[in-house]
Amino acid sequence: MKKLKTVLIALMVVFILAGLYLASNREKEFSATQFLLDTTCSLTFYGDESREATEAVFEEIGRIENLMSMYKETSDVYRINTSKAGEEISVSPDTYEVLETAQEIAKESGGAFDITVAPLTTLWNFTAETPKVPTEEEIKECLNFVGYENIILKDGKVIKTKDEVRIDLGGIAKGYAGDRAKEVAERFNLTGGIIDLGGNIICFGENPKSEYKIWRVGIQVPFSPTGTYEKTIDIKYGAVVTSGNYQRYFEKGGEIYHHIIDPKTGYPHKADYDSVTVAMESSLIADCLATAVFVTGDEELLEKYQGEVYFEKAFKE
Ligand code: AMP
Ligand code: MG
């Protein structure tokens, strides 16, 4: 009888310990969402310091937003946009790195990726409550100030060639933030994590919920409810970035006007696909290339930067 009691107590202890172990393991997963960089940013981290890492990563994304926002008067971008031609504007090393990459991809893509589209994105104002299609004259006027060669980079400083030139880092800042977010997260004791900056996905470490510890990223079906996937990409590490017309657009007279502008024409680029997804290690480069390839439709750049590209279309009705 005494023996049975001892066995029962031992079993109970084992069950309690197992329960505590599972509970503590579950606690090691931490997810949170914040609205930063003009988009919904969601983090899911696994490991002992998942909570602390989340806090630090949001802080880092906020720091980048403060440098690269077009609207915050203290940002590097605001100071560049309000500067006069020939004035030398000192910027943070973060902004300088983003500008160097933007200029490199602008050259490589023959100007399809071009941060000086700002006068056009402001004119089109896709997020306005009652957006309108600009006139041809208005677009022509803006095109006088569009062209990446109007931005000169020299020893950490930025110089414009014309007063009216302005930059918009909407096609690259999230990409940069993704790489920095991963770098900050990796300073903590984590086993893995997934960073989602409005559809820019960055993964690192192991996925505890997968048999092979890999991450499976779905490619959003354009114009379908968020989370509708037909294709998935399995990766261990790196970024999956999508540029899509469905992400920001308005409709007028049966026509869709979306936020990815062809810098040559000043109009949203019309294509027979609705999104371009780029998968590669660098989220910064992937972000530039997804936007560039949306405009050119040309996959060649992906070979040079060693990435993969996927074109998606909306479901046919
Ligand atoms: P993404 O979602 O990365 O393709 O970026 C689109 C955003 O980048 C737009 O909302 C604009 O702010 C900006 N943008 C639009 N057209 C271009 C372009 N051709 N090159 C660079 N940035 C662009
Ligand atoms: Mg982009």
How would you describe this protein?
By secondary structure, the protein is of the alpha+beta class. The chain has one domain (30-312): ApbE-like domains (T-fold), CATH 3.10.520.10. The chain is built from 9 helices and 14 strands. Strand 8 and strand 9 form a beta hairpin. Helix 2 packs antiparallel against helix 7, helix 4 (93-108) packs parallel to helix 8 (283-296) and helix 7 runs antiparallel to helix 8 (283-296). The longest helix is centred in the N-terminal third of the chain and has 26 residues, at 2-27. The protein binds adenosine monophosphate and magnesium ion.
Spatial strand arrangement across the major sheet: 1-2-6-7-10-13-14
What's the overall geometry?
Answer: globular
Structural class per helix/strand content?
A: alpha+beta
CATH topology: T-fold
How many domains, in number, for the residues?
1
Distance separating the two termini: 73 Å
**What's the main sheet like?**
7 strands, antiparallel
Reading the helices and strands in chain order gives HEEHHEHHHEEHEEEEEEEEHHE
CATH homology superfamily name: ApbE-like domains
Tally of individual helices: 9
Annotated CATH architecture: Roll
Strand content: 15-25%
Q: Return residue spans where pLDDT drops below 50 for at least 5 consecutive residues.
A: none
**Small ligands present:** adenosine monophosphate, magnesium ion
The tally of strands reads: 14
Question: What topology does this entry show?
Answer:
Elements: H1 2-27, E1 29-36, E2 39-46, H2 50-68, H3 76-81, E3 89-90, H4 93-108, H5 118-124, H6 136-143, E4 151-154, E5 157-160, H7 173-185, E6 192-197, E7 200-205, E8 215-220, E9 229-235, E10 238-244, E11 249-252, E12 255-258, E13 275-280, H8 283-296, H9 300-304, E14 308-312
Antiparallel strand pairs: 1-2, 2-6, 3-5, 4-5, 6-7, 7-10, 8-9, 10-13, 11-12, 13-14
Bound molecules: adenosine monophosphate and magnesium ion.
The site of adenosine monophosphate has 19 residues, from helix 8.
